[in-house]
């Protein structure tokens, strides 16, 4: 075989698989056998893949290949996520839009078609990229979350929620993106938090009928025009301070940092927070029309911290979640200043019709001009951004649809405990999320998404449609239902129903659904839950799902929620969770940082198997550092396996053994033990440990260990057979990890079947496992390593034999040496091993040379030179030569064992005349000059 080039090998194997329909033959082989159900977490079809997508897809392909080689029948269904802001934002960029108004002016029909076209385009791109990674799936049967089938299954779920009394509409303060014009749910919000610097603003609120003030702190000045109260902690101390003739109140603890630069301040009094409760004050923007007649007072709230701000909390019930809850508790007026685009509403004077970003600056300017501003400081804190467009979020009072979580929470927790999670801490993360999850905010004020089939009549009746059949039955114009091109806006909006309560015509609510409804239903929609329960029961639940850790509160959560609602059982049995892909310096990959690697670039520069190796070797509990220098290191490792394959191909003509040496029994024991470890770790989802066991066997044990033990025995048929068996089973074990390389090596070395993937996954023969021998060999290899290190210290290479090695050691080591003495002698080139019992392990080399030892050393060195020269000259192992040698000493027999030398280098004819030969070489060993020449003997 030629030298290893992963890209060339992969393209060759892809063509081979396609030409010979290997995947189809694998499916046919396993059809009707025991089944293995895997549910693919849908990749969003809105852009080409990056290298980070390849981690999860490598895992998915690995487990499906592994189970296929074990004989399991599988569905092999890939998934594409197709709706929601992921797609909408990219289409807006394509069209040059930056607001919802531009979308509506463009036309919802054209916008929906543009979204669908983008999904269609990039689902094809991602399919080809996944194939290039080596992923096998029934690509013609991928599921798409935009289909009517998927949508109708979600309608069915929402109908069930309504029947259980969980579905409701409510006005709440929600995280809001003014660019996208929609709210975000809390499970979407967490990933958007980032470290940001804001102006922390300290403002004087005047106490009513007094020349005293409250020093209030906020990081969102734009909310101050909507202030309705100030909250204090009734259980902490506050102080009354005089500074520059101004008297104000501040939390005692925070006063130390806030006032430390003002040396002339004077503390007039100290009092508990409860003494401030119910004091009335004037808000800084009471003059605005919207605030006419508003009254303000201090309210108690134990959530006010004594370690932040001034410990006097500005409360705007229309601008903050916590504020809103306090507002309900104390019956505070709710003022909502922003519209969906972040523009101030009428009634706010000079701030009306201005964007929140501009108002934020103008509020500070107005406060300063009116003498109400104490100071501004830069404040670094965690603040949310929109996960798609990256704009800062605001918190806005809005009416949304929710599913209550109180009743389902304990059921979800119970079922989640039945799941096997790896890493184990993922189970706790899920339980923590379920403990703290709020009601599910399912509505979005957008366009390209699941239409919520809620018909809200003015009479107060809410009709929730659960199927197309029900929609047609209740539609005013039934023909319109039949003519629907798809279940999307604007076409679905044309369907009106008759209110069953008052007979009025009712329109559908305009909202679309949370995109996690789309993905959460797939254990039902992809298995035909509504039309073929028998088929669904066969494949439900999934034996395994695989995604990033963030999916615990996203996809894993939504699937669990929807499955408990429909069937009261978990939709998955095992979950593998992995972390993030960083660059090779350990920094997050971002397009804006210039360190992101697109999949196409990565796979064409390093190869898919190199990429897969990086991911399968990584402990999924930690971020992986990915880059081209990492890939080069991996390539060097894979070349060892490739070179070992060349070795096997060249020397291993025999495939069966009849008797075994001790080193043979050891490597066979290691092989069977490796099979046990790989199988056990894969079942436990510990891919990196299975990978580690395979690397240890193929690189350390087989190539570096056994390969050295058998160098002088390669003509032995038993040795050839053992090496062949170990290598072939090794690459079968490795096949799901590195499908391209292993397929190529299998076809070169075995080709018993059309593909390595039509072989059975190796099962261990426990009778061949010898733990005692493995332990002794481990001891032996440590001695060999140390003895070679001692040789290096004294500058005597291993080609030069020494008379003895004395080993001071314990009884276990003595026993190992006794059983493996011949191997030890051979590996360290020692004539005699001496052992002395000792608690302290130590080695002593006898470095004195005799004439016999020197002659053997010279012979070994010259053999090595000739063998290397043969190889460099392009000779085959079978080529015999006419060899001539001279040295700069009188008697060549004093320096070389010519009989042994001729045998080792394949010399049929020997003379002391190296001249006029086809191949000639001069070299020096120690002080002796050698001249060799040879011709190939041509028959």
Summary of the model, kept short:
This protein is an alpha/beta fold.
Polypeptide structure, described:
With about 950 residues, the chain is of the alpha/beta class. Among the domains are: about 185-395, Isoleucyl-tRNA Synthetase, domain 2; about 625-760, Isoleucyl-tRNA Synthetase, Domain 1, CATH 1.10.730; about 775-845, hypothetical protein PF0899 fold, CATH 3.30.2320; about 865-935, no CATH class. Helices cover about 40% and strands about 20% of the residues. It contains 30 helices and 35 strands. Strands 6, 7, 8, 9, 10, 11, 12, 13, 14 and 15 form a 10-stranded mixed β-sheet that branches. A 4-stranded antiparallel β-sheet has the order 5-4-16-18. Helix 21 (about 610-615) crosses helix 22. The two termini are about 25 Å apart. The mean pLDDT is about 95.
Supply the key terms.
939 residues; alpha/beta; Isoleucyl-tRNA Synthetase, domain 2; Isoleucyl-tRNA Synthetase, Domain 1; hypothetical protein PF0899 fold; ten-stranded mixed β-sheet; 30 helices
Topology record:
Blueprint: H1 6-20, H2 22-30, E1 43-44, H3 53-69, E2 79-81, H4 85-95, H5 100-106, H6 108-133, E3 143-144, H7 148-163, E4 167-177, E5 182-183, H8 186-189, E6 193-207, E7 212-218, E8 229-232, E9 237-243, E10 246-251, H9 252-258, E11 266-272, E12 280-282, E13 296-300, E14 312-315, H10 321-329, H11 356-369, E15 373-384, E16 394-403, H12 409-416, E17 420-422, H13 425-436, E18 440-441, E19 443-444, E20 454-456, E21 462-464, H14 468-474, H15 478-482, E22 497-498, E23 505-506, E24 512-513, H16 515-520, H17 522-525, H18 533-539, E25 545-548, H19 555-567, E26 574-578, E27 581-583, H20 599-606, H21 608-616, E28 624-626, H22 628-651, H23 662-683, H24 687-709, H25 717-734, H26 739-749, H27 771-794, E29 802-809, H28 811-828, E30 830-837, E31 842-846, H29 851-872, E32 881-887, H30 898-905, E33 907-911, E34 919-925, E35 928-936
Parallel strand pairs: 1-2, 2-3, 7-10, 8-13, 17-26, 25-26, 27-28, 29-30, 32-33
Antiparallel strand pairs: 4-5, 4-16, 6-7, 6-12, 6-15, 8-14, 9-10, 9-11, 12-13, 16-18, 19-24, 20-21, 22-23, 29-31, 32-35, 34-35
Helix pairs in contact: 1-26, 3-21, 12-13, 20-21, 21-22, 22-25, 22-26, 23-24, 23-25, 23-27, 24-25, 25-26, 27-28, 29-30
């Amino acid at each position: 075989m030629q030298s290893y080039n992963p890209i060339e090998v992969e393209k060759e194997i892809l063509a081979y698989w396609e030409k010979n329909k290997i995947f189809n033959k694998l499916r046919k082989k396993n059809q009707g056998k025991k089944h293995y159900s895997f549910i693919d977490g849908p990749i969003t079809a809105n852009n080409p893949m990056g290298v980070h997508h390849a981690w999860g897809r490598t895992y998915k392909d690995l487990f499906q290949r592994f189970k296929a080689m074990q004989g399991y029948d599988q569905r092999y269904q890939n998934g594409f996520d197709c709706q929601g802001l992921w797609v909408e934002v990219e289409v807006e960029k394509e069209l040059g839009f930056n607001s919802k108004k531009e979308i509506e002016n463009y036309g919802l029909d054209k916008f929906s078609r543009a979204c669908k076209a983008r999904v269609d385009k990039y689902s094809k791109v991602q399919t080809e990229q996944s194939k290039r990674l080596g992923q096998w799936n029934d690509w013609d049967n991928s599921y798409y979350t935009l289909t009517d089938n998927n949508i109708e299954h979600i309608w069915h779920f929402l109908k069930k929620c309504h029947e259980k009394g969980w579905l409701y509409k409510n006005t709440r303060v929600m995280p809001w993106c003014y660019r996208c014009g929609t709210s975000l749910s809390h499970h979407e919000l967490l990933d958007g938090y980032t470290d940001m610097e804001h102006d922390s603003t300290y403002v004087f609120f005047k106490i009513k009928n007094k020349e005293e003030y409250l020093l209030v702190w906020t990081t969102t000045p734009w909310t101050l025009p909507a202030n309705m109260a100030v909250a204090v902690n009734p259980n902490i101390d506050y102080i009354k301070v005089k500074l520059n003739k101004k008297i104000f109140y501040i939390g005692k603890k925070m006063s130390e940092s806030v006032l430390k630069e003002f040396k002339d301040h004077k503390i007039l009094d100290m009092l508990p927070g409860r003494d401030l409760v119910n004091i009335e004050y004037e808000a800084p923007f009471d003059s605005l029309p919207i605030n006419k007649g508003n009254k303000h007072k201090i309210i108690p709230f134990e959530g006010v911290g004594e370690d932040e701000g001034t410990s006097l909390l500005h409360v705007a019930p229309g601008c903050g979640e916590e504020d809103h809850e306090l507002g309900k508790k104390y019956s505070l007026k709710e003022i909502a200043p922003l519209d969906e685009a972040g523009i101030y509403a009428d009634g706010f004077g000079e701030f009306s019709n201005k964007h929140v970003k501009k108002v934020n600056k103008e509020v500070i300017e107005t406060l300063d001009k009116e003498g109400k501003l104490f100071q501004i400081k830069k404040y670094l804190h965690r603040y949310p951004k929109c996960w798609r467009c990256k704009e800062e979020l605001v918190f806005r009072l809005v009416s949304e649809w929710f599913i209550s979580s109180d009743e389902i929470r304990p059921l979800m927790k119970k079922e989640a405990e039945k799941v096997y999670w790896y890493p184990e801490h993922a189970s706790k993360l899920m339980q923590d999320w379920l403990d703290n999850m709020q009601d599910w905010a399912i509505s979005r004020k957008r366009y390209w998404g699941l239409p919520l089939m809620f018909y809200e009549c003015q009479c107060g009746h809410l009709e929730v449609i659960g199927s197309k059949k029900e929609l047609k039955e209740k539609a005013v114009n039934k023909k319109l239902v039949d003519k629907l091109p798809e279940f999307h806006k604007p076409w679905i909006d044309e369907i009106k129903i008759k209110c069953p309560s008052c007979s009025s015509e009712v329109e559908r609510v305009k909202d679309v659904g949370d995109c996690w409804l789309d993905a959460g239903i797939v254990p039902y929609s992809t298995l035909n839950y509504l039309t073929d329960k028998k088929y669904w029961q066969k494949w439900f639940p999934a034996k395994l799902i695989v995604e990033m850790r963030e999916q615990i509160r996203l996809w894993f959560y939504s699937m669990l929620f929807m499955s408990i609602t429909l069937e009261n059982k978990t939709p998955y049995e095992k979950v593998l969770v992995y972390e993030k892909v960083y660059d090779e310096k350990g920094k997050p990959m971002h397009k804006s940082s210039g360190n992101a690697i697109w999949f196409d670039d990565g796979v064409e520069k390093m190869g898919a198997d190199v990429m897969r190796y990086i991911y399968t070797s990584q402990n999924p509990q930690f971020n992986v550092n990915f880059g081209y220098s990492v890939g080069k290191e991996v390539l060097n490792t894979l070349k060892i396996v490739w070179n070992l394959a060349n070795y096997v191909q060249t020397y291993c003509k025999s495939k069966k053994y009849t008797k075994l040496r001790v080193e043979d029994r050891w490597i066979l024991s290691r092989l069977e033990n490796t099979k046990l470890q790989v199988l056990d770790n894969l079942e436990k989802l510990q891919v990196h440990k299975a990978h580690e066991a395979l690397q240890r066997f193929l690189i350390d044990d087989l190539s570096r260990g056994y390969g050295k033990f058998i160098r002088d025995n390669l003509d032995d048929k038993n040795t050839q057979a053992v090496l062949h068996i170990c290598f072939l089973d090794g690459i079968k074990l490795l096949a799901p990890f590195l499908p391209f390389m292993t397929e190529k090596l299998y076809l070169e070395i075995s080709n018993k079947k059309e593909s390595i993937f039509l072989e059975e996954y190796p099962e261990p023969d426990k009778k061949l496992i010898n733990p005692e021998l493995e332990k002794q060999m481990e001891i032996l290899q440590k001695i060999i390593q140390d003895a070679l290190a001692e040789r290096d210290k004294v500058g005597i290479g291993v080609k030069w034999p020494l008379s003895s090695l004395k080993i001071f050691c314990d009884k276990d080591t003595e026993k190992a040496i006794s059983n493996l003495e011949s191997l030890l002698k051979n590996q360290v080139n020692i004539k005699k091993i001496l052992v002395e019992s000792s608690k302290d392990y130590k080695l002593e080399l006898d470095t004195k040379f005799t004439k016999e030892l020197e002659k053997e050393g010279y012979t070994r060195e010259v053999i090595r030179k000739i063998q290397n020269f043969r190889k460099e000259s392009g000779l085959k192992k079978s080529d015999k030569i006419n060899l001539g040698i001279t040295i700069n000493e009188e008697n060549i027999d004093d320096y070389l064992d010519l009989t042994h030398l001729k045998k080792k280098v394949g010399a049929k004819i020997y003379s002391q005349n190296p001249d006029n030969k086809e191949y000639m070489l001069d070299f020096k060993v120690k002080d002796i000059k050698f001249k060799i020449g040879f011709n190939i003997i041509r028959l």
